[in-house]
Amino acid sequence: MALVKVEDLVKRYTPEGPNAVDGISFEIQKGEIFSLLGPNGAGKTTAISVISTLLPPTSGEAYVNGHDVRTEPMAVRQSLGVVPQDLALYGNLTGLENLRFWGEMRGLTGATLKREIDEKLELTGLTERAGDRVNTYSGGMKRRLNLAVGLLGNPPLVMLDEPTVAIDPQSRRYILDWVKRMKDEGLTVLYTTHYMEEAQELSDRIGIIDHGELIALGTLDELIQLVGQQETLMLQLWQGDGLADFKEAVQALEDVDQASIREGMLVINVPSAEAMLPTVLSQASALDHRNPRAEPGDRLPAPYRPRLA
Amino acid sequence: MRKLWILILKEIRLTFRDRGLIITMLVTPLVITLVIAGAFGNGGSGLSDIPVILINKDEGFLSEELVNVFAMEGVTPLVQLEVAPNSKEAEAAARARVESDDVAVLVIIPSDLTSRLYPFSETAQEILGVDFETWGEGETPELTEAEWQALSMAYVQSQIQTPAPSEPAEVVLYASPDWRISTMIVKSIVTQGLTQLQLTTQGYDAIVSRIIRAQMASGDLSMSDQDNAQAELADTFAGFGGSQGAAELEQSYDLPIRLRIKSPSGRGFSWLSYSAASQAMLFLMFAITSGGRTLLAEQEGGTLPRLLITPNPPLTILLGKMAGIAVTGLMQMLLLWGATSLVGAYWGAPVAVAISMVVLVLCASGLGAFISAWAQSPGQAGAVGTAFSLVAAALSGTFVPRPNMPAWGQTVSLVTPNAWGIEIFSNLQNGKSLQEILPLLGGALALTVGYYILSLIGFRRQFK
Ligand SMILES: Nc1ncnc2c1ncn2[C@@H]1O[C@H](COP(=O)(O)OP(=O)(O)OP(=O)(O)O)[C@@H](O)[C@H]1O
Ligand SMILES: [Mg+2]
Questions:
Q1: Are B398 and B418 in contact (CB under 8 A)?
Q2: What is the spatial distance between Cα B310 and Cα B315, in angstroms, rounded to a whole number?
Q3: A217 lines ligand 1 (CB under 6 A)
């Protein structure tokens, strides 16, 4: 059963503004680790905010555990834990006080709360510093506490938003191992990151997101195949404003697998760039675009190409 | 309800751990209150040269000792004593000076101090001479038989017919409530004097009983006529059983004097008290509007978004935040009340003050909600909050007494919690009771309701 279901999800921050999330669809199965991989500003945090009911979707649907984020926000919140990208802790409270406060706000009480706190302190290795104010912690310690707070009560779905940024390799290792252990414990994880290696190491499936669009989605093997079998063509128009129409037209062509707009260029995936070029160019002139600049590109931007071990 | 409490507790923790907040919430208003009160004279906080007037109405000789306490080493730097003559005019003048806060305490020693304290003393003084304590060294005075008889009679009478006055004599401290600490100091000095008096009278008792017993032993008394007085005397001593009797006599001695602090019933205007209350209102407004800023901080720091995705209704989170701010505001008021009282400010009858504080904090938090509901951004809310707090404070009479404000200012400022706070506390400081200020509390509550209705409209408009 899909624990998370997202359909044509769009999120705009301002009525006229660009779509921070631009019609993405995916499902996450129970017990799966799913990574959203993408550069800065791709829309990862926005997607998580909508799924966690913090922001209402502009259009499209999102369900967690079968509950609609629009109509049943409380049920959605009940079943998820979020580890935000930026630390969200009370610096003037101690680690223990933070854990207790957030645990109580999640509805934990009594012996359960105490057990959860002890367990999380143990896991984060913060037992000895539990009585110190969070302001006095190192960056890595704060990140670990931030993570622990999101995991209080072991919610069925955990969303981790770039938990490893600005952190030393040792702490990073620690967190990655922790995420793997969550999977062993049957939790479902939505993980976002900049780093292909992390996504590759942790995930059952990976969605690559850029400019709010999912440009690739699949298991590691599927992604490798995609890179291996397909070629990419990048086209730039002299007049920039016709790009969206051009994309529509090209997308409609047979053999064009996917088309997306990246930094002012149209990027299309085709079985063979050489064979496809004439068709695409005639399509351009049909739309009154003279001599678009065309060059071969990569199916996935370099940082998001899977490494072959 | 539980969640609300958890949120309030968190707010209190965070507030009282933030040094900056403590300074703005507590230290600054205290300092300003002291500076203002100091600049306008009647500090009342001084611990030296406390102005005291003393009127001695006592017709006996024992009060001398009480007056002398003020001249003791260690006491002289504390008190600036002025002894007024024992006349009706002088007493009225002295009372007036206490009422105008010119003088901290007027000490009145009652006319019957000596006779109440030691009824026997007059006879003893008459027979043995003024300095009868000189007989303490074991000598026996040379007295005629008639003098012995008179002495013994008077002594026995003083012992067995213990005067049981319905009311003990009172040493009155007529004290200005603005000089609270000073009054406590003067009280302890007078108490010390009374204790000393007690020791002195016990000493006299011991001397006289020793003299009489020595005389009895030498047989002088038994040779005289068997009259009633002798029989009584013998009975008394038989009853107490020798020297042990003397000890018990001393122990059973009880001071028929009490100390009473009285305050002027109609109070004069006191800048210290007025400033304490009006500054507290101003800084309550600061605290509540800066609560809006902590909301911004929580938004930016990510804790508010994190709270909003916990399984709790957003209304609970919002209420928790507001209640947290209100409770810290109330604690601030209570602490300022305590601290300014220590330096002599008077706020009014405690229960009425506490109830008024709750009402006024509610009112201020209504204003806080109103501002954040209509502000375009949290930053704007902070700026508007500060500006409004200051204008409201000035209009309602925080920096000059409210009655001195122009009439339009007094009227217009009724839309601020400050004006109601100042009205309420001024009345309480004047000695008004809770019942008497109920209409004012009602006014503040009506304003509170108004604020909340406008806030709701504002929130609806923003989040529809
Ligand atoms: N509160 C906001 N108001 C307006 N625009 C926003 C807001 N938050 C994000 N955006 C915009 O939405 C787009 C997606 O941002 P988002 O934070 O979701 O990206 P991200 O993938 O999480 O990036 P990063 O890796 O840097 O965290 C960006 O163009 C960003 O400028
Ligand atoms: Mg992000």
A1: yes
A2: 12
A3: no
For residue A47, the ligand 1 atom closest to its alpha carbon is 18
Chain B residue with the nearest C-alpha to that of A75: B311
Cβ count near A229 (within 10 Å):
11
Q: Within 13 Å, how many C-alpha atoms sit on residue A148's CB side?
A: 29
Burial class of A296 by CB neighbour count within 10 A (0 to 12, 13 to 18, 19+):
exposed
DSSP lists the bridge partners of residue A291 as none
Q: Could you report how far apart the first and last alpha carbons of chain B are, in Å? A: 26
Cβ–Cβ of B309/A87 closer than 8 Å? no
pLDDT digits (tens, 9 = 90+) for A26-70: 999 999 999 999 989 999 999 999 999 999 999 999 999 999 999
The CA distances from residue B377 to B293, B372, B385, B456, in Å, are 10, 8, 12, 17
Chain B residues with CB within 8 Å of chain A CB: 2-3, 6-7, 10, 13-14, 17-18, 301-303, 305-313
DSSP B30: H
Query: How many angstroms separate the CA of residue A89 from the nearest CA in chain B?
Result: 6
* Cα B90 from chain centroid (whole Å): 26
Domains, chain A, ordered by start: 4-225 (3.40.50.300), 230-308 (3.30.70.100)
Measured CA to CA, the distance from residue A210 to residue A222 in angstroms comes to 18
Residue A45, ligand 1, Cβ within 6 A: yes
- Chain A residue numbers with beta carbons less than 8 Å from the beta carbon of B6 are 101, 104-105
β-strand partners of A62: A6
Q: How many CA atoms lie within 13 A of B204 on its CB side?
A: 26
The verdict on the CB of residue A13 being under 6 Å from ligand 1 is yes
- Cα A178–chain centre separation: 18
Give, in order, the Cα–Cα distances in Å from A255 to each of A266, A275, A276, B188: 16, 10, 8, 103
- Calpha distance B122→B114 (Å, rounded): 9
Contact of A81 with A158, CB cutoff 8 Å: yes
Place of tokens 């406008």: B454
List helix spans (H) across B100-179.
113-117, 121-128, 145-160
ipTM of the complex: 0.81
Q: Could you read off the pLDDT of A225-280 as tens digits, one per residue?
A: 776 666 778 888 877 678 888 888 888 888 777 788 877 788 887 777 778 888 88
Q: Could you tell me if A261 lies within 8 Å of chain B, comparing CB atoms?
A: no
Containing B107, the helix (H) or strand (E) segment is strand B105-109
Closest residue by Cα to atom 26, ligand 1, is A40
Among A140, A139, A195, A185, smallest CA distance to A158 is for: A185
Query: B284 and B327 in contact (C-beta within 8 Å)?
Result: no
Residue A165 predicted with pLDDT over 90:
no
pLDDT averaged over chain B? 79
What count of Cα atoms within 13 Å lies in the side-chain half-sphere of residue A151?
28
Q: Are A134 and A56 in contact (CB under 8 A)?
A: no
Residues 6+ apart with CB under 8 A from A19: A10, A11, A12, A58, A212
Say what the pTM is: 0.66
Distance from CA of B17 to the nearest CA of A (A): 7
Segments of chain B with pLDDT less than 70: 37-47, 121-122, 125, 128-139, 158-167, 177-178, 180, 217-256, 265-269, 292, 378, 462-464
CB contact under 8 A, B303 and A89: yes
CA angle B213-B218-B220, nearest 5°?
90
